[in-house]
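Internal ticket #5521
Category: modeling
Description: The requester needs a full-assembly model to guide mutagenesis choices. All entity lines are attached below as received. Residue total reported by intake: 1108.
Assigned to: D.W.
Attached entities:
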Amino acid sequence: MTGTDTPVVVARRVARTFGSGAAVVVAVHDVTCCVKAGARVVVVGPSGSGKSTLLHLLAGLEQPTVGTVSWPALGGAPSGLRPGIVGVVFQGLSLVPALDAAENVALPLQLAGIDDSTAMASALEALDRLGLAAVARQLPEELSGGQAQRVAVARALVGAPMLIVADEPTGQLDHVAAASVLAALQQAATAAGAALVVSTHDPAVADRFVERWVMADGRIE
Amino acid sequence: MNGMSWVGGLLRHRPGRILGAAAGVALGVALLGALGGFVAAAKGEMTQRAISQVAVDWQVEVTPGADAGAVLDAVASRPGVRDALPVAFGATSGLASSVGGTTQSTGPGVVVGLPPGYGATFPGQLRTLVGSGDGVLLAQQAAANLHAGPGDTITVNGVGGGPVTVAVAGVVELPTADSLFQNVGAPPGAQASAPPDNVLLVPLPTWHQLFDPVAEARPDLVHHQVHVRLDHRLPPDPAAAFSRAAGSARRLEVDLTGKVVVGDNLGATLDAARTDALYAQVLFIVLGAPGAALAALLARAVVAAGRDRRRRELALLRLRGASVRQLDRFILAEALAVGGLGSVVGLVAGLAVGRLAFGSTRLGATPFQASVWAAASAGVGLLIAGLAFGVPARRDARRVSVAAARRQVGRAAQPWVLRYGLDLALLVAAGLVFWATSRSRYSVVVVPEGVPTVSVSYWALSGPILLWAGAGLFAWRVADTILGRGGPVFRRALRPVAGRLSGPVAATLRRQRQALAGSIVVLALTVAFAVSTAVFNATYRQQVEVDALLTNGAAVTVVVPPAAKVPVGEAARLAGVPGVGHVEPLQHRFVYVGNDLQDLYGVDPDTIGPGAKLQDAYFSGGSARQMLDRLRQQRDAVLVSEETVHDFQLHLGDRLRLRIRDAATGRLAEVDFHFAGVAREFPTAPRDSFVVANASYIAAQTGDPSPGTFLIQNHGASPTVVASRVRQAVGTGATVTDIDTSRQVAGSSLTAVDLAGLTRVELAYAVVLALAASGLVVGLGLAERRRTFAIIAALGARPRQVAAFARAEAAVVAVFGGVLGAAGGWLLAHMVVRVLTGVFDPPPAGLAVPWGYLAVVGLVAAVGLATATTASGRVARRPVAEELRDL
């Protein structure tokens, strides 16, 4: 576990369980970790090792059953995902089917109370940065898998977050598309000065990161 | 994997999918089962009621020259004849009595000879008012004319060798005098003859003593009948019962050719009942068919709500090697599961409805009828499941690729239904049918004169059904246009429910408008169904009440025989009877209009309006108030029927010279009136023709101010109770009737059948449908978009922001489906009432709107929408990652 600046997010002895009684599943078990500003972290491990749950805990999407997660550089604990704080790229299809690419990207800003025209201008700019200006008015179902995932990246970046969490962002893409999405993520994170945490079980993706957390049975080895 | 395990898996993992569609099927099955069973039972009740109304089934007229004894034997020995008794009729030139030192005499009359036991065999024929029910009996009116009663002696003039005296044993009422003195063998359409005013009933031996001496010399003065009571084992359907009864009567005439003519009272009554039965059938179609179609649409909408997921599943199955044939098996198994489960639940619900609404699980139907309807309803349930689920799923299995199955929204091209203007075409067609049916004297139930069959003009029923379907699709067009092209205006309209998110909310609604269309159309059709059914039922009940009021005249009515003297101050005396609110005296005379003898009613225009509860619909060319004003302003003003206006080519202000009997001279005197308006209906008046004038003017012209009828409004006591008290007050000298009894006795068998039960089923069904259309369909639609809501929540939306998307969707469905459906329902109610005018007697002047019920429907729909919206909002309160993982 390495870092260079102030911690963006710190997890202390966190555990997350699902279910109860005999059916209880421990997804994350006694994990302590820290992501510093500008860090590039990849989380690897087999399916079911707890990668997604750990990322959701770091993003504030899940509450730990035991332990604490804090965001010192973000002014405490984010109540939900707000622009400028945390951007998340979800596993699989995560665009709203009834909104076009630009509308999908603008949505987090609109939810934060930014007016429609400003939000749309920012969305178009974010899409342009990722080379997606041509598909701004396309519906998600009209995009290729790579395009859809890059739109999801644009949506995660549109609010200039300090922490970007991407859960298997290339899981359903071919190598070319995966490389393109990953490059887009890294470039955007660098441009924004944001920390980036990516989960994957693709060695080619993992090799592009210096800091690597290996998970097995809910623990970081 | 086989079909069973596929269905088992669905029940375990997607129970809402099977149960939701089955609920839609169950609604249709329950309605059809309940409604069909009720109509079958109603038909049976109509037949039984018709039979019970007939005092004498056959009046077999013995033709002159035939042997009455032989005819009696022949009739009595026929199969199906339970009782056959001889009855003889003889004409007298008049009756006379000397009572209390004064002599009273009457005009011509009829002496009827009855065999022993006649009253017991035909209990509906005679009603003893006072004295004995056997021996020499005087009919009520003759007794009033002669001022005679039991123990008095009366003289029968013009019989045999001269006047004959008999002692009166009792006074009786002849409830079916019209039938008893009918002109047997008169051609169809012939004008009915009025029963004689003076009737004496004597034992048959006495009659023979009186008339045998004249029978040979004047055979025209006597005639013989055989009165028959039949075995009433007839089919429950009035049409089948009529066919058998009428056929049996014709067979008798054929077997005794030239010797008899059959007055088939049973057949005539069943003839009317079969017409009413057809109206009941029409009601079943008009009210039941849309309900069943709605259930199918509901099931379809439920199925459509899960279609995207199903398409993805089918596509994945194909991707993993399933053949189209295997998919067909899965689809068939699922359709059978939906149809079977829905049918079973629907039948159980139908039984419960029967128990709750009618106190019987069979709704009064026979076990056979109930079984037939249950089987038919279950068949329709399977059909609905096949059409709503099987057909689209099978099409998807063949046409949908894996890539296409991923699609959830698609570029919304206008659907072909709207592109080709099917909704507009349906509305235009409905308008044309309505125009065609309302421009002429149209009747949905056709009874051709002289033809022994009645039929339903089914094409005319297509008008309301076309309007209903067109209105539902038109709601779709309006919603599609506003959602698709509304732009900034639509966004602003959404602000109250979506706040600052109106932009993205409007964008999602615009792209999902085809998915929303299903909910909008189903809700619009449901609301239209509920509104039209409720308004029709309320109008029907209103007109049944008006009919009863017209027939009886008032809550309680006292009719004094024409020759009876009404004491001065009788109205005031009646007003003193406990429970009596208002007494309105009404003169009743007979008047010759040309050669037509018509009823004349003399009224006080200052009091008759509220006193008789006159309604605007009773008059043509003006309101009730305007017509009474005309009578008030012109002393000799007269209101006549439309038929009279037409026959005599009258114009307002025309002088009309009528002949009325003068009280002093007893002769007809010519009296001038002026035509002032048209009266279509009047309390106690016959339907064809009558005259209404100022009572003071008639009194002055005839010298007789006495009223013949008292219309009594009750106050604080039921009409039956008040009638009983009034009956005690007036004795046997007058006939007292009450509206409750009239409602049961008078009117058609259709109005007599307990349509309240049908109403309860229909209205309750509409409420359940409203709940299902709003809650179930919208809820399932929102459930399909749970992933969208979860994504929005994951992007940082607060619960109220997520709820804004669901609320806006519910609001769009409520506004387009509810408001447009209500407007369509209102039009539909007008059309249904117009098309089914024959059901109403008299036709309504306006529609009755049951606001309370409609408010309940609106409230239930709102609760359904709110529940669905709240349930979808739960997504925002669950942990986002957990929700996304589940989806």
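Resolution: model delivered.
Comment from assignee: The mean pLDDT of chain A is 85.
Ticket closed.
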